[in-house]
# Entry
Amino acid sequence: MRGTRVLLAGAASLALMLTACTTDAPEGSPDADGGNGEGNGSLAPDAEWFDQAEFDAQLAQRGMTPEGPDDEPWLQAIEPDWIDTSDFAIDDPEEATVCFSNASVSNPWRVTGFITMEQQVEALVDEGRIGDFRVSDAADDDNQQISDIQAFVDAGDCDAIIISPSTTATLTPAVETACDSGVPVIVFDRGVNSDCMVTFIHPIGGYAYGADAADFLVENLEPGSTVLALRILPGVDVLEHRWAAAQQIFGDSELEVLGFEFTGGDGAAIKDLVSQHLQRGSVDGIWMDAGDGAVAGLEAFEDAGQPYPVIAGEDELSFMRKWDEEGLTAVAPVYSNFQWRTPVIAAGMILAGEEVPSEWILPQEPIRQDELGDYLDLNSDMPSLHYAKFGGEDLPGFPEAWTDR
Amino acid sequence: MTTDTRLPDHRSPRRRSGGLLSPLRSGTGTVTVLLVLIFVVIATQNPSFFEGPPLMAFAKKAAPLVILAIGQYLVIVSGEFDLSVGSLVGAQVVIAARLIDGDEAMTFPVIGLMLLFGLLVGLVNGLVTTLLKVPSIITTLGTMLILFGAVRYWTGGAPTGALSENFRVFGRHGLDGVPLLGQLPWALVIAAVLTVGAVALMRSPYGRSLMATGDNDTAAAFSGVRVWRVRTLAFVGSSLMATVAAILIGGFAGVTAQVGQGLEFTAITAVVLGGVVLGGGRGTVVAAVLGALTVEALFTLFNQLYLPSTIQPTAQGLIIIAAVAYASRRGDLRLPERLRRRPAHPTEQPLDSSRR
# Structure
């Protein structure tokens, strides 16, 4: 009897789970040859992650010509508001200590960027613009990063503090603590809810990235074609903005979005998810919020004997090499990896009392078919998980620092 | 005594009542029912799932977890845990990519090296646990962190190199042109061979010693089992299985920085879902394999239903707890009190707890 009761309870909870899911799904019953989860009707971006004014601003910034040297995009700035930093100038910058609180090196994009940053430091030390560089790595742990920043403040021997925040809201008080200590603070990559830092350095942003990818699919697919979105994780602002922009653009298009799936950036999960979608029907386009594992997704098409989709990956070389070898219809949106050079350069400028932009918006240009060959040639010795727009070709240690990891 | 009375139970459940329904009364039964239930729901969502090629695609994806579950089964049934397998899979794939670096000629030497490395990791896990008396949950947690950190240090956080096409054959390709199925994946063949091998192993004297050790290591020691050696070999088995799984996973999807992350918990989940009791001494290889298939089927089902990914771990956890609770209730019904573990032998308890 007890067994029967438990079996019934189990069946009931499973039924509950299934009905809960179908409640989430939009109107219209699932069919065998299409997806069922996310039709075009549900493509309104989540209000929490969509800011129309910011979306419009970023899309406009894509077309602006930045100030600064053409061949050094890491020094360029879009619509900069230059501010005076003479209060922070010190007499002997060659003795200065620059401290860097890194969120982590937990993915290839951050690894590539951090190597670029270290090589830039070497160049700055040689030029006598900074003296010492100290790094703490929080391994994606907010609490660890708060304590790392506090330790820099308590030690009192940092002349400038660079912070790449792990998350936005949680790190805001820690960044403000660093500002209160009186040393110049530079924030880059992800932001915080404060403007106490001297400068905030970042590429244009997630909306521009997501829109570059979505626009490409809309332009290169016939109306009525199907698109699958592959995302990494929910809840990270730069990734949510990418998807919100894509939802906005797909919603106005005649493409059918089959759904979106979170993959954790794991190639095996990506390949499995794409394979399952291919079993249920055709997939004509793939939109990704980051290109990690794009090749695994493409292999799912190979293994299923189906033609390659139109795809928006990223400037990771594994994807760009596949694009070249197979002659794909593809684009590589870029979240400019060279931005890792800019914070240490900014530290040197601030310690010399030079003006810097209060918000330093770096250019963010996707790599298109006509530039593919050039970037592959430039990076021919680099490992497959390296990012083409790392911008370190003129730095000391090139190419060994990036090839011999 | 305890061991003697219980052994026929695990070895051949069919003997008890002889009927076809008897496996349904064990943990194997629960997981089979759950697996069938999930397959039925998948079929309602995607009727083509049971045609040859989609089913083979499922098998190809599930094979590495099946193999990891077999390894984890060996360790769990001996009364221990192996938390290092996820990190080991990650390390092996990264090592393979770096050493092969796209050179076909390096494929088999590197696979040989991977097996040696797996053997070494298993030996270290086993000897530290059995000879230094470090609880296995700590030993393998340590190994997990050591491997994770060492690989990150070695590669600077992002893997380099590339796997060769020969290496990827095992996880990605198969025997083409098979009627109905289309392609018979090598991964499925390898998983099937290892399952049969593991079933045979558990019926051998070693398997009986392993089961007896997990059930009651003091009694096993008194009856002549060299407990330390039996357990160490279980860890070696687990690490070798993780190495084979790494070859298949790397082959399936290539190198990504995240490969292997969290697989130890998925493997333990699979084994427990198969009704293999934590603490050891009960459960079958087949149940562990069915548990792995169930976990993979569950992932597939979540995907078919477009279940929001944020709720997936919760749903997974609820189903697992419900299934194991159900199985253990059935276990209560199945085993009369006098046959259950923990007989009131006054000397057993302190000895036992000191080990764990």
User: Anything to note?
Assistant: Strands of chain B lie at 174-178, 182-185. Chain B has 16 helices and two strands. Chain B touches chain A through 51 residues (CB under 8 Å).
